[in-house]
Amino acid sequence: MIWFYREPWISWTIITCGILTGLAVTGLAKDERPSLASAEPIDVQLTPLPINPTDPAQTKVGLLRYRGGGELKSDFKGFGGISGIDLSADGTRFIAVSDRGLWLTGRVIRNETGRISRIEDARMSSIRGENGAALEGKRSADAEAVRLYAFPEPTVLVSFEREHRILRFSIENADFASVFAASGALVSPPDHLDKQRDNGGLEALATGADGTIILISESDGPRKGIARAWRRTAAGVWEEGSYPPPAGYRATDAAFVSPTELIVINRRYTPLSGVSAIVTAVGVGSLFDEAPSGNARPSSGPTELALLKPPLQVDNLEAADVWIAPDGKRILTILSDDNFNSIQRTLWLEFELPDRF
Question: How confident is the model over 20-47, as pLDDT tens digits?
Answer without folding.
Answer: 433 333 333 445 556 666 789 999 999 9
